[in-house]
Fold this protein.
Amino acid sequence: MKRLWHRFLTSLTPGVRLLLCILSAVYLAALVGKFTHTYNLYCWLALSGANFRQGQIWRVATYPLLPAAVFDFVFNSLMIILLGGLLERIWSRAELAMYCAVAVVGAGLAKVILPFSDSSPTAGAGPLVFGLLAAWGRLFGHEKVPLGAFGEMTVRQLALLAGAISLVTVWLSAGLGSAVVILSAGLAGLFYLWLRAKLLMARKSRVVYSERMNRLEL
């Protein structure tokens, strides 16, 4: 069992491993506080417009650390392993962390700004996962995904289908405001990727001088 657990941890990419460790540690701390009745992390980290307007601005970044339920934690963790691992094929750990922060804060700001957003506190990594799904569809869009007897689909088509199903499910279960908040994570992430690409293209080319080449010329 210990060997299997070690093999599982080593198979994770560095950024995904760090993210899962943070989520697990915070959730464990929340459970300890709940069962010992000594503190309640949800009162400190979950996001609501009222708390944000009172100056507790950190909540737009901390709400994904606490899952809404055990199933929410397990499902989002699996999606982070899958999507985060795929994205870290082309990103560094810092780039993955930056993108996750943009998606999370984008959804958090939508939660506190939009007038029709649900007034109940928001917790869970759903917006983060939706942001990762949007990035996967954007960056790997033309790759083919085999679906067995159903043929194959491009990554973009599969991401759009999965995103649409997720939004409809959230809409029916939690309301339109919650669906818009999750959608905002994907839109924020896509805008970040677009802006990042534009900045890289606009960067002027620079001449790199090599001391080795100078010595050869001499």
About this structure: The radius of gyration is 20 Å. The mean pLDDT is 87. The chain has one domain: 2-203. Strands lie at 144-146, 152-154.
